[in-house]
Design goal:
The complex is a heterodimer of chains A (399) and B (323). Chain A is built from 15 helices and one strand, in the order αααααααααααααβαα. By secondary structure, chain A is mostly helical. Chain B has a domain of 132 residues. Classes of the chains: A mainly alpha (399), B mainly alpha (323). The interface between A and B is large, with 102 and 104 residues.
Chain lengths: 399, 323
């Protein structure tokens, strides 16, 4: 099923693990050397920036090829008024070409995730999808057309995600699945508005257990990245489908719920509790099971929960909230760092020794420059207290 | 198959070691290093923004002395902590064990910036010399960056220095806030960029804080390239000079990227260089104004993109980088 060379993939995994063990003195130097020679990873693995460059310029190349092709076809277009037919043909042609080259390069050159293959995959899929959109869009109304489109896209996305173990395609696949599910439930009619949140929760829960089961299988090692992405999405969707803000606003938007002043949605209290407690539960489970992904999702959702409550129960003083929130966060981080000076229950503050810190520390400096940096001063009297006043543009001017 | 099982099968690990490794994999602690650092950083960001607005809104009610006193005390506390725990200066990288240290210094420097700005606004301590009001904190930041070996404060100092010269170099505002159609801004930017790159080069040769090189050059490269390309777009009689300068800069950063193995600079030079080259090529094409020129343009894009893709594929061989 997987297009890439499987030996290469498992060798990469072995070497990654071996490096971690070597950095912690679990295996010695001669063993590490044997691992490196015994499991060669002879393939083109460029630096991350080179990868970005390859991705960008491959996309340029494909668009320029499309432009040139269209230019050559202007003559045909002149005599034939079916723009739609032409678009379908071109999309199919370019889509197949992209996928063809992708397959060939993987076979010939043993490529894996070097920017070019990603660019080819994404543009190939986009071409195929636009061909499908051109075919479908004409003879159906908006909603049904969209549903039909999603249903046709889904097998392509599933196949691509499985064959090219690509995380971005996996995200698209999940979004597509949830869209189909949403539109299907909408078809029920009036009862949909009561069912929707619980239906989404139920679907996400079942996905979660499927993913968990798949992750435990050793035959799915290569899909680990994709499964992690699915897990994160499923956790987020589970939360979002019970979030107070989402329920309230979507009830008004999709189900024309009329809320007069002082009125609240049904079961409001339960949804408030859900909004506040689920992220904390995620955080607890994440820390308990040493699941970093879950911790990240939990942190993100805690921010969402805070914003939700802030939206409905605002004190009207954003600056006070900001200052207090800042102090609370500093205090929490400070206390946790002090607490974790020694490892507690399998959690540590020590950085993983084998992680590449160069990018992180340098990125940190840029983020600091971005958020606190001084923007240019002009000598006009009017802006004499511009940028630098409160330590930067982030605060001084915008609020 | 499990990695340890496979290594045992292939005779690289013995059974004992495999058990040991499996135990480690099961027991290994989860590191929340970066998570806590990000929370701490976001906390400081929110706190500083909130404090800034709070002071701004209540400037008439709290009383200036109280505000200045509170900020000064907080700032002094931060620097007191900093100097107490400070390690002696060295030209090499100095690492602090406490992760909080960096953030305390950052907070102290930011508070100092607020203080200076406030005093200038309220009491005009620097009079009409607005330049000094910007240069003073920038100079402090730069020296603090060296004293405490802090890249974040170094980048604050650089933005402050550039702001004093009259340009915004914060990463997102480089294009947004600067009016590159003005020739003054272009030359100021070229000046600032050259000073930064030149100083970094000098410091590298003298082996002074070599790990600051990335921060200096990242600012310098972006300012210089954008200013030069803006000059090129200006289409004056100087266009050819700007083009040559861009070519020189591309060459400089190619060498820098190879020497420092910092391929961000390779990517930056290729992208900016490509923009300049394409611009020149297309303006020549438009001058010719032939009906074939559009097609020629498309051929140029295809050929040049293919060439760049090939260059990136074989960059190690072309630039002579050993593995």
């Amino acid at each position: 099923m997987i297009a890439y060379n499987k030996i290469l993939l498992s060798n990469m995994l072995i070497i990654k693990k071996a490096k971690q063990w070597f950095s912690r003195d679990l295996i010695d130097g001669s063993q590490m050397a044997t691992v490196l020679t015994k499991y060669p990873i002879e393939y083109f693995k460029p630096n991350i920036f080179i990868k970005i460059g390859l991705f960008i310029f491959t996309l340029f190349l494909i668009s320029a090829a499309l432009g040139l092709f269209s230019l050559l076809c202007v003559g045909i277009l002149m005599h034939n008024d079916s723009i739609q037919g032409y678009s379908i043909v071109v999309s199919v042609l370019f889509g197949s070409a992209c996928i063809f080259f992708l397959e060939k390069f993987i076979k010939w050159r043993n490529w894996y995730s070097n920017g070019i293959d990603d660019a080819l995959l994404y543009s190939g899929l986009s071409f195929i999808f636009s061909a499908i959109a051109f075919i479908i869009s004409d003879d159906m109304d908006d909603e049904n057309g969209f549903l039909a489109m999603c249903i046709v896209y889904l097998p392509f996305l599933m196949f691509a995600a499985a064959r090219y173990i690509d995380r971005v395609v996996t995200i698209a696949m999940m979004i597509c699945m949830y869209c189909i599910f949403f539109l299907m439930v909408m078809k029920i009619g009036n009862a949909a508005k009561f069912i929707m949140p619980f239906a989404f929760m139920a679907l996400s829960t079942s996905f979660y257990f499927i993913v968990k089961k798949q992750m435990a299988l050793s035959s799915r090692t290569h899909y680990n990245g994709c499964l992690k992405v699915i897990k994160a999405i499923v956790l987020i969707v589970f939360y979002i489908s019970g979030n107070y803000y989402v329920i309230r606003e979507s009830s008004i938007e999709f189900f024309r719920l009329d809320l007069s002043e002082g009125q609240d949605i049904p079961l409001a209290l339960i949804f408030y509790a859900f909004t506040a407690l689920v992220p904390l539960a995620y955080l607890y489970v994440g820390l308990k099971t040493k699941d970093k992904l879950m911790v990240w999702v939990a942190l993100l959702l805690i921010a969402v929960a805070v914003l939700t409550f802030k939206y409905y129960f605002s004190l009207g003083h954003p600056e006070v909230t900001l200052t207090i929130a800042g102090i609370i966060m500093i205090a929490i981080a400070y206390a946790s760092i002090k607490y974790l000076v020694t490892d507690k229950k399998g959690i540590t503050f020590k950085d993983d020794p084998n992680e590449d810190n160069f990018l992180k520390t340098n990125a940190e400096a840029l983020v600091i420059a971005q958020s606190f940096g001084t923007t240019a001063q002009t000598t006009d009297a009017g802006v004499e207290m511009g940028g630098g006043e409160f330590g930067g543009g982030g605060s001084g001017n915008k609020f | 198959m499990n990695v340890t099982d496979q290594l045992v099968n292939d005779g690289i690990l013995d059974q004992e070691q495999a058990v040991c490794i499996n135990n480690f994999e099961r027991e290994k602690p989860m590191s929340v290093h970066w998570e806590l650092k990000i929370i701490l950083y976001l906390g400081i960001l929110l706190f500083m923004s909130g404090l800034g607005i709070l002071v701004y809104i209540n400037i008439d009610t709290i009383g200036h002395t109280a505000i200045i006193a509170a900020i000064s005390i907080a700032c002094a506390l931060c620097f007191y902590y900093g100097f107490k725990h400070r390690k002696p200066y060295s030209n090499q990288e100095v690492k602090y064990d406490s992760p909080l240290f960096d953030y305390v210094i950052l907070l102290g420097c930011l508070l100092f910036g607020v203080l200076i700005g406030y005093m200038q606004y309220q009491y005009n301590v620097f009079g009409l010399h607005y330049g000094i009001a910007t240069l003073f904190p920038a100079a402090l930041y730069l020296s603090m960056a060296y004293i405490f070996d802090h890249k974040g404060i170094l980048s604050l100092g650089i933005t402050g220095f550039a702001a004093w010269a009259g340009i915004s170099v914060t990463p997102m505002h480089l294009l947004e806030y600067n009016d590159f159609s003005s020739i003054d801004i272009i030359w100021t930017s070229i000046g600032v960029g050259t000073i930064l790159a030149g100083f970094s080069k000098y410091a590298d040769m003298k082996e002074i804080k070599k790990h600051f090189g990335f921060t200096y050059n990242n600012f310098a490269a972006n300012i210089l390239f954008i200013a030069l390309i803006a000059g090129l777009f200006d289409e004056g009689y100087m266009a050819i000079a700007y083009f040559l300068m861009i070519a020189g800069l591309v060459f400089y950063y190619f060498r820098y990227a190879v020497a420092e193995k910092s391929f961000l600079f390779l990517l930056l030079s290729v992208i900016y260089g490509y923009i300049a080259l394409t611009y020149v090529f297309f303006s020549l094409l438009i001058n010719i104004g032939n009906e074939l020129s559009f097609m020629l343009g498309l051929f140029y894009i295809i050929a040049s993109c293919a060439a760049i893709v090939l260059f990136f594929i074989y960059y190690k061989r072309i630039l002579g980088i050993k593995k």
